[in-house]
Fold these 2 entries.
Entry 1:
Amino acid sequence: MKVAILGYGTVGSAVVKALIENEKIIKARCGQNIIPVIALARSVKKNSLIPVTQNADEILNRKDIDVFVELMGGVKEPFAIIKQLLKKKKNVVTANKAMLAYHRYELEKLASNLAFGYEASVAGAIPIIKVLKEGLSANHILNIKGILNGTSNYILTHMSQKGSDFKEVLKRAQELGYAEADPSFDIEGFDAAHKLLILASIAYGIRAVPEDILIEGISGISNEDVYFANEFGFTIKLLGVAKAQDSKVELRVHPTMLSKNEMIAKVDGVMNAVSIRGDMLGESLYYGAGAGGLATASAVISDLLDIARGQLKTPMFGFKSDMKYSLLPIEDIYTKYYLRLKVEDKIGVLSKITQMMSENSISIDSFLQKPKADETYSTLFFTTHHTFEKSIKNLIHTLKKQKFIKTSPFMMRIE
Ligand SMILES: NC(=O)c1ccc[n+]([C@@H]2O[C@H](COP(=O)([O-])OP(=O)(O)OC[C@H]3O[C@@H](n4cnc5c(N)ncnc54)[C@H](OP(=O)(O)O)[C@@H]3O)[C@@H](O)[C@H]2O)c1
């Protein structure tokens, strides 16, 4: 089977290297050679393992290629190329979650019965697409909770374990190559949201794009939040959450306070993990490297092996007729919350806050006042019982207008 690699960067070059180095085991497993014949890049590559061209048409017009592997990144350009390939009835494999977050259903329609592999688009080496699409296909998926971004998990782990400040750890992550020079895509939750949307397509057939769902990042988390979490037996993780209730599904990505006892709370550093609860199997947890050249190439090549065996299952998201789920509006999300407020330290402030909470039907679960930061202001921490997102947002809106509030209130959800 002849393969063209569109994009010869971190993942593309690792795919080529692994196809060459693991040639024998790959052939033994699928009964044929999988040969990377040509790659595409913008720049000239010296010492590449296969010929690399800068001319896209040279590759796209080749008739002898069986599978095109898109590893360029971006949205518009790869989408245009893949559309063109599918129209020519070519098989495609991609690791491109950003493109799939926006265009997956158009691609599904075009792909029809062609093989379209995207295992590497979510959680790197963890074969989570196959788990959901095949292994758990008899289950109603009750919920999915994922640590889907290694950069954010690295930062939160270091803040929690070493008491380091957010900016300090981010700088260290950049020095170590775990974070990009512009880290916003990772730390503001967009990368995790793209992956969550792909999983939600398989589990529920949800057609949402990133703009439709709740996305918050980790840049607002302070050492005080870490202090509170430690005091109350929580750990903070950037979590992608999908939850089904009757025919509605809530999808959200945000920093989350999790009980330290939960299995997923123990996933530290750059590692990824996905917990899936099904109505038949209960909870299951999948753990592994979420990024990196070879780890991601492992997932890309597993799709290639499936194509070689004639086993890459269609339809693309594993369901043949429309599923009955729709997206729950963000304001109807119902969960527990954590609030950090920096307030003027004077008589009556606490009672005003609790009054506002009760006016919004919010009931307090726990409360802590941190020893004073300075002479005139105190930091107050609250956790609430279950309440609606719209209630907590109303409360924050009202609090922001109060003279006794020093800095904008900070809120986090609790699972
Ligand atoms: N890196 C990971 O750990 C990881 C994990 C999971 C998924 N992914 C996904 O895998 C894909 C590739 O990621 P990566 O980290 O390998 O990216 P990368 O290192 O930036 O490599 C991208 C490659 O594509 C080439 N390219 C980009 N735009 C092009 C264009 N318009 N024409 C021709 N060539 C073009 C680049 O050429 P030049 O070399 O000349 O710049 C480069 O060789 C992305 O969709 C990413 O989200 C990556």
Note: The domain at 2-124 is CATH 3.40.50.720 (Rossmann fold).
Entry 2:
Amino acid sequence: MTENVYLPKLARIASIKDEVVGARAIKTFQVEFPDGDMFEHECGQCAMISVFGKGEMMISIASSPLVKDYKQFSIMRVGKVTTAIHAMKVGDVIGVRGPYGNKFPVNDWKGKNLVFIGGGCGLAPIWPIIQTAVAQRSDFANITVFYGGRSSRDIMYRAELEKLRGVADVHLSVDQAEEGWEGYCGFVPANVMSTGVAPDNAIAITCGPPIMIKYVIQNLKGLGFADEQIYTTIENKMKCGIGKCGRCNVGKDYVCVSGPVYSWAQLKDLPQEY
Ligand SMILES: Cc1cc2nc3c(=O)[nH]c(=O)nc-3n(C[C@H](O)[C@H](O)[C@H](O)COP(=O)(O)OP(=O)(O)OC[C@H]3O[C@@H](n4cnc5c(N)ncnc54)[C@H](O)[C@@H]3O)c2cc1C
Ligand code: FES
């Protein structure tokens, strides 16, 4: 009999961490596959997560492919399914199907300077590359991370980012001045510009709100980055995740199959439907 491609694997929530609380709450879930259904994935790929009786949603796999005993997902509460998963407890079971989408060409970046630029929940899709680059530190040149939230309470992976300072150049920011904040005050694109990252032998990877990505790319171009040196992801709404329903198209591309990872050289020629 043909395999049902919509059938999820069952995963048990092994841990839940509150990253951000309040209106834009983000929780990080680590899930295990008790039936031995763990799958391999590549940096940049996603999975369709189901909360039974509520629905499905596409979420970036936020753990490194080098981690073999769990998959990590960091999820912002915005609507029906995200609210349902935020109410779940350790030991509860969710559905996971995937991995879906293309990948960041990390192997092609060996020997290069990596510049990561994230905002809000946009650190999740690039976190697997950061973790992989740190684990394989000698394969890469400088690692620089820019990440910002609206306030210090909106910074996700805070402890992990602090730990990164030993091996990477970490620039944290908050949108507005805040008492006790020692990092940059202002928007992420401005932080990138003020630090003046050099484009030589570099790849810049940016994820976050579309408005942030727009100005980050503009500023990277201003600093001399070529279109081929800039990578991002696009998160068009998705339904099937496997190129069947047509829900996610941008021009001729189904983003769930051809994306979500694009270089700016590829993306700038697609219609602005993202
Ligand atoms: C490739 C990809 C990777 C993603 N990775 C992550 C991730 O790592 N973490 C995370 O928190 N979210 C991620 N998302 C977004 C996530 O899929 C949506 O937030 C989720 O589907 C919302 O489900 P919901 O039922 O809670 O919201 P709904 O009840 O469906 O919607 C609530 C509100 O959010 C809007 N919305 C829903 N989905 C999207 C979307 N994809 N883009 C823009 N607006 C949307 C709706 O229009 C509505 O206003 C990703 C999306 C894609 C396509
Ligand atoms: S989500 Fe169905 S074609 Fe992409």
Note: Residues 106-233 form a domain with the Rossmann fold fold (CATH 3.40.50.80).
